[in-house]
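Could you please review the protein record set out just below?
***
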Amino acid sequence: MRFDIDVTLAYQIADEQVLLALEAAQTPVQRVISAQLEVAGGTVTRLAAEDGIGTWIWAHLPAGEMHLRYRATVEISRQEPALEGLQADPLDHLPAAVLSYLRPSRYCQSDLLGPFLEREFGPEFAALSGGAKIAHIRDWVGRVMTYRRGASHSGTSAMDTLESREGVCRDYAHLVCALARAADIPARYAAVYGTQVSPPDFHAVAQVWLSGAWHFVDATGMCRANSLALIAVGRDACEVAFMETASEARMLRQVVQVTQAA
């Protein structure tokens, strides 16, 4: 699948530099055919992002406001195997770079969720393995959660979401990651663009390590793996924010459009 990305950002900001993660990554199954980033009156410096996927961008700005436009055409050749057919790798066979995604993080407190898994999912879940467990988690999160803008904030964690049962894509991804890690399956948070995101915006999903590779899991039900463009990954949203600033920033305009190319 080939699709076009068009992002316009305008923020009132006191800082003279901000850290951005918004360019689609080049990967073996994701080819960036063309891309252009314009920062009005500013310059940019790039460095490799977490796990070598995508780029962090330091945008050096004139004081006062940031006006930015990013456009790209991306081609996806990613396969989408059924989760239920994928196997969990033995823990002692996990690559070092994957092992860290079994651990709890600031927004994914997987170490607190073992008793919940036993109580809520019961012995039937314990009898499942690998991708079948992830499919169960995905379906459960999609069923019990209500997608509601404004129901969460930047400090909302997976434990908060588990209690409230509402939120946005960020919260769905955090909850899937936390439950997967509690079930001894590595999971990481992925910032993405998706063609079916509604309302159109930056999107977040989980990725789980099964059968020796990372696989997308979108519990919101909005996007399939072959309609997602990966931006960057991390343990949770704290590591994959599309924009980080030292002081408060006020949004003036934000438009994210992702459309399937002809």
About this structure: The CA atoms of residues 97 and 238 lie 18 Å apart. The radius of gyration is 18 Å. The chain has a mean pLDDT of 95.
